[in-house]
Amino acid sequence: MVKMDTEDSSRRRTRSACKRSVLRDAPANSKGSGVLRSLSVGNFDDQEAMEDDGECPKHGQPGRRVMAPRYSLLREVGRGSYGVVYEAVARRSGARVAVKKLRCDAPENVELALAEFWALTSLDRRHENVVQLEECVLQKSGVAQKMSHGNKRSRQYLRLVETSLKGERVLGCPEEPCYLWFVMEFCEGGDLNQFILSRRPDPQTNTSFMVQMSRAVAFLHQNNIVHRDLKPDNILISERSGVPVLKVADFGLSKVCAGFGSGPGGKDRDGGEQGNKNVNVNKCWLSSACGSDFYMAPEVWEGHYTAKADIFALGIIIWAMIERITFIDAESKRELLGTYVRQGADIVPVGEALLENPKMVLSIPQRRRSHMSDALRKLLQDMLAVNPQDRPDAFELQSRMGQVTCAA
């Protein structure tokens, strides 16, 4: 593994190149903005207008139902630099859903929105541990249009793709904003951070979550999807069945390594192989350094990696969850699950520390009074190996996780 030229300047360059997931919990005192209160979608040929009906209740505040043809937005539950997430209700069924509204007013926003759309629509079947997309709606100039991948009849969809590929604005005047609305299943248990840190340690829940996370990643990799931003913020919890069910979400930085290219053997602009449904994601090389610092594998910091980076991120999450290791995020000031390496007064992401010192031995478990089994300790060491070839792939991980948890 090749080190970066100068550690400090190189670290700054890499940090600035790393995209972060932008949808976070909305602060309780966040100011409101005018939002579309009713989300009305017909079929492709029967376009209906969306109504702008004032403000939506804020995060943490009880919401009044506003009647709408399809969905009523109840309250805001998350906000970021390019999108907002609402809790909503489907008028006909009364089912609660999550509605994510993404503004496509810049190429980087369009790229993130399309990445999520392509990843979720590429799945041929559902998986209980991956958040389910119900529908996606493209809205511009008050007109809503149901989205389907590769729909050549939709001029706006093709212009979105062109914007993403060219990296320049082609959607027209800023006065006519374009939005993508993602309607997904609602997870009332919050994210993994909130769920774990608001409860007493529970080995049974930890064991269940480890198995569920490994199943989710195996399913994604089997379907040629590299998530690239696995972290507790992006793992949601559903409690509808009476037991917590984990859902991997937020595919804005994901990469589909097959199915959307120009032909077999082709390369996309991120270095991914395209057009082959049987692509091995562990041989699909990616080059965009993206993700969130504390969960990024050493090779991601260098910008040359495969799906094994997801395995590393999962190792960080599981290790932090088992030992309840946390840090305070500098931006949001939230306490987050995540392991790290201490360097003097600083804490350094594990992947970055391993990049600087590949021979470093991680202290697993970190806490003296840990109940971590030897089998789990060995599995975590393998998942966090500095050399990605020494890590298990997602299918081996799923098998070994089953053995570890059964033994426990």
UniProtKB/TrEMBL annotation:
Residues 71-401 form the Protein kinase domain. ATP binds at residue 101. Residues 1-11 have a biased composition (Basic and acidic residues). InterPro entries: CC_SR_Kinase (IPR050339), Kinase-like_dom_sf (IPR011009), Prot_kinase_dom (IPR000719), Protein_kinase_ATP_BS (IPR017441), Ser/Thr_kinase_AS (IPR008271). It is found in: Nucleus. GO terms for biological process: negative regulation of G2/MI transition of meiotic cell cycle. PROSITE patterns: PROTEIN_KINASE_ATP (PS00107), PROTEIN_KINASE_DOM (PS50011), PROTEIN_KINASE_ST (PS00108). Its EC number is 2.7.11.1. Residues 1-38 are annotated as: Disordered. It is an enzyme of class 2 (transferase). This is non-specific serine/threonine protein kinase. Keywords: ATP-binding, Kinase, Nucleotide-binding, Nucleus, Serine/threonine-protein kinase, Transferase. Pfam families: Pkinase. It catalyses: L-seryl-[protein] + ATP = O-phospho-L-seryl-[protein] + ADP + H(+); L-threonyl-[protein] + ATP = O-phospho-L-threonyl-[protein] + ADP + H(+). GO terms for molecular function: ATP binding; protein serine/threonine kinase activity. GO terms for cellular component: cytoplasm; nucleoplasm.
